[in-house]
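Following up on my earlier thread - several people asked me to post the actual chain instead of describing it. Fair enough. Here it is, all 199 residues.
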Amino acid sequence: MERRKLNVWDDSVQRKGKLDLRLICATEPPKSDTGVAAVLAKGNPKPEQSIDMRKWAVLKEVDAEVRAASARVSELDPALDAILAEKFLILNQKEYLQGLTDLVVASHAEKQVQDIARAEQLGTAIFESGQRQKIEYEKSLGADRIDHQFGSRVQSVDIYAGSWAGLAGGIRITLEDGRNILRHKSMRRDFGVGDESWK
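Reply from S.P.:
Thanks for posting it. Predicted structure:
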C-alpha cells in the first residue's frame, strides 16, 4: 500500500488530537538553505574543512582576476588576503569573486570606522577623567602649591594620556625639584630627576 505524504498539520492529523509518529516519518525532511548568505553565515570552516592556502597561492599565480582581487585587499591590510581566500574557497565559484572582494573591503572599512569611534570615545573618557582629577588635585594644594606628601612645590599638573598601563586618564604632577609623578585614582608611579620614561 502506498504511503501518503502528509504535512504534520494535515486536517486528518489534527482531528486525531495527537501526532502520529508514522505521519512524521512519511513527511519530507525540510530542505536546507544552500544560499550564499547561509554558507557564509556558518562562519569559519571546521578543522577538517580548513582553507588550503596553497590552492589560493596557485590560483593567484594562474588567474589574473584572483591575483587582482588579492592585491586589492592586501593593499588595505595584508591579513585581508586570508579572509578573502577563506570566503572564496568555501564557495569555490569564480562568479562570486567580485562580490566577495567588495564584501571584504566594505567590512574592513566599517571596522576602521568603528575603531576610530572607539578611539575617540576612549580619548574623550581619558580627557574627562584626567580633567576631574586635575581639578581635585589643584584644589588640594595650598597657596604655596607645596605637596607635603612629596615635600616639594608643584610646578605643573597635566592630564596624562601616555602609555603607562592603568595610569592613562590620570594626571602627571611635575615637581619643582625635577621629579614627575603619574597618578590615577589610587595608583601612582614616581619618576626621579632626569627619568623621562613616563612619556
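Strands lie at 146-147, 152-160, 170-175, 180-184, 187-191. That should answer part of your original question.
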